[in-house]
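As promised in the previous annual report, we have extended the structural survey to additional targets. Below is the entry for histidine kinase.
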Amino acid sequence: MRAVPKTAVLFLFLVVLAFVFVDRSVGGNKPPETETIAQWHIKWDTATNGEKMNVLEAMGLQVQESVDPPPDGKTGELVPLGNDSTKSGGKAARGKSAGTDDTDDGWTFVDGAQSVPSKPDGVRAAWIKFELPELGWTRAGLMIDKLYSQNYAVVLDGKVIQESRRSYLYEVNKVLLPLTPEDSFKSLYIRIETSGEKLGIESAIRVGDHHELLKQFMKQDLIDVVLGSAFIFFALMMLICSFFLKNTHFTNWLSLSLVILALGLMVITYSPFLYTFFGQWGDRLFLLFDISLLVFLPALTYFFETVFGSGKFSMIRLFRIFQISYSFLCILLTAINEFTAYQYEAAHYFITVLLLGVTMIIQFVLLVGYTIVFTWRGNKDAIIFTSGFAIFAAAAVTDLVLYYSHSQNYDLVLWKFGVVGFVVGLIAILGRSFARDRDKLISYSSELELYNNRLQRSEKMQIISELAASVAHEVRNPLQVTRGFLQLLGEKSDDKEKAYMKLALEELDRAANIITDFLTFAKPELEHVTVLQLCDELKHIEGILVPLANLQGGEIELEIPSNLYIRGNSAKLKQALINIVKNSIEALEEKGTIRIWAYEEFGEAIIHIKDNGIGMGPEELAKLGEPYYSNKTKGTGLGLMVTFRIIEVMQGKLQFRSEKGMGTEAIIRFPSVLEAKPELL
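The corresponding structure token record, generated without further manual editing, is:
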């Protein structure tokens, strides 16, 4: 989570804001103090405006040219709207049964609780009429939540009081009309026209206080704007940040930001909110929705590719290249179709609608198929992607089930919340990618620090080796000469002088041993490298050191399998391991134990030497193996330094673990050999 950008928090905050502060009563629940008109009549009209305009002009009706006057309820002919019998109170209309179909004059009864009536073939227009109830509000209003019509005009008292015309095919309208108490019991006519499939009013008509209805009208579908704006804002922040990223993160960051940006634009341009308040830009909103979809599809494939790879035979990469080319083709055809006044609409529809649907099906099958494969392999990113896509798919399928179960009288709303779940899943995948890279960076930094320490130690050891070889060579010969003369003098000395001579010889021997350690450290070449059986070598070391351990009040426990073999020099190996075991013996307190065990793991023979002695702190542990460092009174620090050097030459590794008061554990690793071979290597 630490790798997820801070803007993600703001994005989630805006999404929550959409659910919390947008009035959830909008879109179906009747607000207080309103009256519902649940029944009306509809009359299909096959005539065009041009056939009736001259009649309207001759009658001198106060209507705009684009609107036909409603036909008379009895004869079906055009009549002046000002002479409507309902103007005087509409008693005749009010006494009429609401469940009657006036098939003799063409008017059909409609129950608002039912679905929108099916439009007859060849019909592009219709009239809707209903009687207004008593308007007891000072500033009354009428609100229609959903009117399916490309163009509509509302006629009251022979005058058009509201009109909307669209040059693009978008059929969802929300209507809010201001009324007065004088309009009570009057008949209201709505002329509707469309080039699409649906024509009519869905759900009931509400009448109430204009101010209250206006608030509901403004809040309807506002959640789409808030949700889409949150997507867009978050995507823009990601796009800005992407320019500061390196190439390793730029591609998946950019592709995800394009996915979120396209989804945000699709949510907003799909909502009726913008078409209601910014209808003059409706054709551009339509175009923006199409472009957003054409950007979303290849961007999603590209993001999938950056996370999971190109797939077998590079299928994902090849399909992504096809999608980008196809999207550019669709945008080009749309531009050509716009500039040529839709002369190539048939080809445009086939390529950008029908073929697009097939492409989307192939894409989702491909991505879901690969996701299932990666999920089966235990890929956590694939599991997250599958979960997010499952949320989106479940929401979309639920929407479709409700849509068709309600005879297509249902708003598709759940898919938007499914998009939120899907986007959150994509963001989580990107966050995991950043977290992995951060962990790699930390790991690489640790390894770099380790290699740097090793390099410094190696350089230091190289300098000391050269110095040790020079000093040991120059000092060893004079020491041997001095020892020889002391031995000669000791033969001619009395007992008291012999005691002094013995002490001098012992100190010379100690100096010689130190020089030998220097030479071993300086030139640790291994002679006679053979395959060694660890069990035999460690048993030999145990035999040498058990008396020393007993003197310290300790014991040695050995547990070595007989099938462990390594390459090396027996004498050098014994020297190194004896140094380690001797240090453990010297660190023991009363009745201490030194446990030695070994095993094979991942092609390595691993030896553990563990004691329960006084232990060491972190500072002491860090200095082990450094020249001249020793925590013993008479120690020189050369023994452990030589041990490190021998193990290093034998391609091994030595590691110490220790805790003050708990003891120390040495772990030695050598490349293992499958079986012993008698010949020299």
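The chain has 17 helices and 17 strands. Residues 34-220 form a domain with the Jelly Rolls fold (CATH 2.60.120). These points will be discussed at the next consortium meeting with the crystallography subgroup.
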